[in-house]
Amino acid sequence: MKKFWVDTLCRFIPNEERRKSFREKLMYNPIDDLRGQIEDLRKGVNDIYPKLETFTTKSELSKVESDFRQAITPPAGPSDYVFHGENNKLLVWNDAVGDYVETTKIIPGLILTIEGNNNTIKIRAPKIIERLELTMLGDGHKFSLGNFTNKIYDKKIVCLVIFMTMGDCELVIGDNLVVNPLVIIHMCEYGLKCFIGNNVRLAAESKIYVSDAHPIIDVETNKVINYGHRKRVLRIGNNCWIGTGSFIGKNASLPDYTIVAAQSNVVKPFEESYTVIGGNPAHVLKRGVKRIDTWDQAFEMTGENN
C-alpha cells in the first residue's frame, strides 16, 4: 500500500534527483536501520573477542571498544529542514512569546518536503505528532494545525499523509485532532481549500480527497471536466468522526456532529447535524445521535451501568 502511494506521488515531481530524494524520505524505515546496527554489532563482537588476549594494557582495550562503538553508531540525522525554494516558512507556537515563531529545526515525527516558494506551515502543538508526512509542491500553499487540550489520548497524530500540489492550496485543521494510521489528505489543483473543525477523529485508512488525482478530458469537446477552477472548498465540521476506510470526496461537506460509518463513500454535501451517514454512496442512516470519546463518559452522561 505505501509503495503504491509513493510511486503515485512521485509522478508529480518532474526532477529526477528530487524525485529520488522524495522517494527515499517516504520509504525510510527505521526498522531497517536497527537491523543493520544489530548485524554490525554481531560482526564487531566476532572480530573483537579473538583479539582480547593480545591486549596488554587497559588503555588499548578501551581504545578498541571506543573505535567499535563509533563504528556501529549511525550518523546523526539532519538538524534542520532544507526547503527547495524561497520564502518558505515553518512556524511553531511559542508560549513564552505568545505567537508563532519561525524555525527550521527538526520537529520529531514531522517529515517535511517543500518544492516551491511562499509556502507557510503553522503548527500549534508539535508534541502531538507521532508521524506527519507533509509534501508541498508548488507556490503559496498554507497549512495550519491547531492546539490539543484533550487529555484522553497520548499520541494524537499516529500517521497522517498530506499532499498538496499545483499551488495556493489551504488546509486548516482545528484543535484536538485525533488521527489513526494511515490517513491521507490529497489536494491536487490550484486554489483548493479544506477546513477541518475541532475535536475531529479520523479513523485508520480514511481518505480526504479535495480533488481528483488526474484530469479527465471530454473527448468530444476536448475540455477538462473535473477541474474546480479555484472554487472548491471541502468542510468537515466540529466533533465529526470519520470511520475506518472511509472516502471523503471532492464534492463532500460534513456539518458538526456527523458520524461517517466505516468503508463509506461520501461524494456529496450533507447539511443535517447529529447524524450517522454511510454506504456507497453515503446517505443518512440514523438521526439524533452524537459521538462521545469514551465508554466511561457515555455511561456517566446517561447514568447507565457498564
Keywords for this entry:
globular; 7-stranded parallel sheet; 306 residues; alpha/beta
In short:
This protein is an alpha/beta fold and 306 residues long. The protein is built from five helices and 23 strands.
Explain the layout of strands and helices.
Elements: H1 2-10, H2 16-27, H3 30-48, H4 58-72, E1 89-94, E2 99-102, E3 110-115, E4 120-123, E5 132-137, E6 142-145, E7 160-164, E8 170-173, E9 178-179, E10 183-187, E11 193-196, E12 201-202, E13 207-209, E14 217-218, E15 223-224, E16 233-236, E17 241-242, E18 247-248, E19 253-254, E20 258-260, E21 265-266, E22 275-279, E23 282-287, H5 295-302
Parallel strand pairs: 1-4, 3-5, 4-6, 5-7, 6-8, 7-10, 8-11, 9-12, 10-13, 11-16, 12-17, 13-18, 16-19, 17-20, 18-21, 20-22
Antiparallel strand pairs: 1-2, 14-15, 22-23
Can you walk through the features of this model?
The chain has 306 residues and is of the alpha/beta class. 21% of the residues lie in helices and 28% in strands. It has helices at residues 2-10, 16-27, 30-48, 58-72, 295-302, and strands at 89-94, 99-102, 110-115, 120-123, 132-137, 142-145, 160-164, 170-173, 178-179, 183-187, 193-196, 201-202, 207-209, 217-218, 223-224, 233-236, 241-242, 247-248, 253-254, 258-260, 265-266, 275-279, 282-287. The strands form 4 sheets. The chain has an 8-stranded mixed sheet, with no helix packed on it. A 7-stranded parallel sheet has the order 3-5-7-10-13-18-21, covered by helices on one side. Helix 1 packs antiparallel against helix 2 and helix 3 runs antiparallel to helix 4 (58-72). The mean pLDDT is 84.
